[in-house]
Design a protein that fits this description.
The protein is about 5% helix and about 55% strand. With about 325 residues, the chain is mainly beta. The strands form seven sheets. A four-stranded antiparallel sheet has the order 1-28-27-26. A four-stranded antiparallel sheet has the order 2-3-4-5, with no helix packed on it. Strands 6-7-8-9 form a four-stranded antiparallel sheet, with no helix packed on it. Strand 18 and strand 19 form a beta hairpin. The longest helix has 22 residues, at about 1-25. It is globular, with a radius of gyration of 20 Å. The protein starts with a helix and ends with a strand. The relative contact order is 0.12.
Length: about 325
């Protein structure tokens, strides 16, 4: 009888563990080693249809191409100069890589990976975003500008002047606005992309060092991740001047955050060694539901909604090898 009781308890614990894993916000499905990748890893981009992940290995001066389906490194692209931002334009099968050291944006064919053209921007070319509707690519660079490129031709079309170096920025699909983190200026700049000018700025009071940014357009909410102190700021984008709705404490040294609209979750990757998961219980209410231990310096990530996949970049530090951890969303 005692043996039966013990077996029952063990089986219940195992079943409970499986049930907990099944309902976990993120479940680790595979780990892809990044062999011979040293130094800081910066931003990621994905080709959802081709199930490829592009990794800007800044400290290695390479771009790593991963096969997400096979779970392995497919190719290494070398010859970059501190690759920071990266974006993929599927309509043209083009890869755009911003280089911090030489201030260029290099445009590559998405399969041969041969350089098609190089756009000279200036110093510290950084975040890159592809805007599907206009088929334009935006690159943040220098002491304060967004360069606007034609995704098909690679031609530079315009510059949008800012008050400081831009970090993350996001497009509004139902309107002309681009929201831009400008940490040195201590504000979020709101750019009218039809006019190519800053229409307003939202000064930050509750926290500074605003690096990552993401938008929940359906609920008119903008999320800014700050490092000093470590907080997530939530703004109402429909309110004049971007009303601050609430703040949520997060782990230190964040560099990427994403909103999973289907599950109403926010994923915040932090260099302190945690992946914070925040649940949106209402447009104005948020709660941290989990801080998943990751690894020191693992602060860059990418959410790929069409694949229900979240990818976390882990750099080589001490005994921890460089790798990409691939999670499935619930």
């Amino acid at each position: 009888m005692k043996l039966f009781h013990a077996l029952f308890i063990c089986s219940s614990l195992v079943a409970g563990a499986h049930a907990q894993e099944a309902t976990a916000p993120l479940v680790l499905k595979k780990t892809i080693p990044l062999e011979k990748v040293e130094g800081r890893i910066d931003h990621l981009a994905a080709d959802g249809a081709g199930q490829r992940l592009f990794v800007a290995a800044l400290g290695n001066n390479t771009v790593e191409v991963l096969d997400l389906k096979a779970g392995k490194q497919a190719q290494r692209l070398s010859g970059f100069a501190e690759p920071q931002g990266i974006a993929y334009a599927p309509e043209f099968d083009r890869l755009f890589v911003a280089n911090g050291q030489d201030g260029t944006c290099r445009i590559l064919d998405g399969h041969s990976f041969k350089t098609i053209s190089t756009v000279e921007l200036g110093d510290d070319a950084d975040n890159v975003r592809y805007e599907e509707k206009s088929r334009r690519v935006y690159v943040g660079y220098g002491s304060g500008a967004l360069a606007v490129l034609d995704a098909k031709t690679g031609a530079k079309l315009a510059d949008v002047k800012l008050a400081g170096h831009p970090e993350s920025f996001r497009f509004e699909t139902g309107g002309p606005r681009i929201f831009v983190n400008v940490p040195k200026a201590g504000h979020i700049a709101v750019v009218d992309r039809e006019k190519g000018t800053v229409s307003e700025t939202w000064p930050l009071k509750d926290a500074k060092a605003n690096f990552p940014l993401i938008l929940d357009e359906a609920k008119h909410r903008l999320f800014a991740g700050c490092r000093n102190p470590a907080k997530l700021l939530v703004f109402d984008t429909a309110a004049p001047g971007g009303r601050l709705v609430t703040t949520v404490a997060i782990s230190r040294d964040t560099d990427d955050l994403f909103f999973d609209a289907r599950n109403e979750l926010i994923y915040v990757s932090c260099g302190q060694g945690f992946l914070d998961i925040i649940r949106q219980t209402g447009a104005d209410t948020y709660e941290k539901v989990k801080s998943m231990p990751t690894a020191a310096g693992a602060r860059t990530s990418l959410f790929v909604p069409e694949l229900s996949m979240f990818c976390l970049a882990v750099p080589h530090r001490g005994t921890q090898s460089a790798e990409i951890r691939v999670f499935k969303t619930e």
